[in-house]
Design a protein that fits this description.
mainly alpha
Length: 201
């Protein structure tokens, strides 16, 4: 992986762009509370807007990045909330869809679900001791983020084939008596491939 690959990854992956939001420090906790802590798969717009407006009303001046949602100075909380929701759908943080009565509903996107899952895995791994354990956790998280957010059948099939080929290599290496460290180094190269694939999703 080159520095250009890393730059492309950061700029093109919806999940990593989510983490780069200048508002991420309050956006992600807000969404996690509304959807995950409250165990809601879907939230109606008429419910989500007041919740977001209440959160915005508690912000100190200067804590919002108004440019991210094209908000004009002086707009009230409800107006800002609706613009944030439009922005989050465009950034693939949320998905919106109409119900049978034509009202707008929202749910977390697959990218946001994976970001939260990744964060949870990182938190669980903080008490793990040993480089290999942390590596396995990171590799597993990245691999799951790639495989489970890929919509293109051909690309997902290729990812799974590559994964199967990597497992076959590890089995063969162990049969030949290759040291575990050499296998770890091979996995490092797989992580680079994993990140590159995730950037293209």
């Amino acid at each position: 992986m080159t520095s250009e690959n890393i730059t492309f990854l950061i700029q093109s992956s919806p999940a990593l762009q989510m983490l780069r939001l200048r508002n991420a420090a309050w956006v992600l906790p807000f969404l996690y509370t509304v959807f995950k802590e409250n165990r809601r798969m879907v939230v109606k717009e008429e419910q989500l807007v007041p919740l977001l407006a209440e959160t915005l009303s508690q912000h100190a001046d200067g804590t919002e990045d108004l440019e991210e949602a094209r908000i004009e100075f002086g707009e009230d909380e409800e107006s800002r909330s609706r613009k944030y929701l439009v922005s989050w759908v465009q950034k693939r943080i949320l998905q919106d869809f109409p119900d049978t009565e034509g009202n707008t509903n929202y749910q977390l996107s697959a990218y946001t679900e994976k970001v939260f899952q990744w964060m949870q895995n990182l938190q669980l791994g903080q008490n793990h001791v040993g480089t290999e354990s942390r590596f396995k956790m990171l590799f597993g998280s990245l691999r799951d983020m790639v495989e489970n957010t890929e919509d293109d059948k051909e690309k997902k099939l290729q990812i799974l084939k590559d994964r199967r080929a990597e497992i076959d290599k590890e089995i063969k290496a162990l049969e030949l008596g290759v040291a575990p460290r050499a296998i770890i180094m091979r996995r490092c190269r797989s992580v680079s491939t994993c990140l590159s694939s995730f950037a293209m999703s």
